[in-house]
Write a structure and sequence with these properties.
This protein has 118 residues and is an alpha+beta fold. It is 42% helix and 34% strand.
């Protein structure tokens, strides 16, 4: 089992870096190009959900074992919360691409952790 973690600010320039990093990890895990692209979309959408929920930073934990597991945590809940239809689209996209996605909320009902496996 191999683990890889990254912590980043939730700003646009870092999202591109995360997509490239996720693609590399997917390649190491043996994903084909289409599966890797789906996984990159899911990681990016998870980060966008956290950003829209007011988090300024995030941590991503990847675990490569028989499958590639990913946990995305919101950190530094100090931003403004954006209530838009885009969150529903992100949630639907994650569910469509991966099926079993877990969303954990804090006491205020804010999504603070998203986990999935591919």
């Amino acid at each position: 089992m191999e683990n890889f973690s990254v912590e980043l600010p939730l700003t646009g320039e870092y999202l591109t870096t995360v997509r490239l990093t996720t693609g590399g990890i997917c390649a190491l895990a043996g994903f084909d190009v289409d599966a890797a692209e789906d996984y990159k979309v899911c990681v990016t959408e998870s980060l966008l959900i956290l950003k829209r929920n007011g988090f300024l930073r995030a941590k991503i934990d990847f675990t490569v074992d028989e499958a590639l597991a990913c946990e995305v945590y919101g950190m530094q809940l100090e931003g403004e919360r954006e209530e838009t239809f885009e969150e529903e689209i992100s949630v639907a996209l994650l569910s469509a691409l991966l099926g079993d996605v877990k969303f954990e909320k804090n006491a205020q009902g804010v999504v603070e952790k998203i986990s999935f496996e591919g």
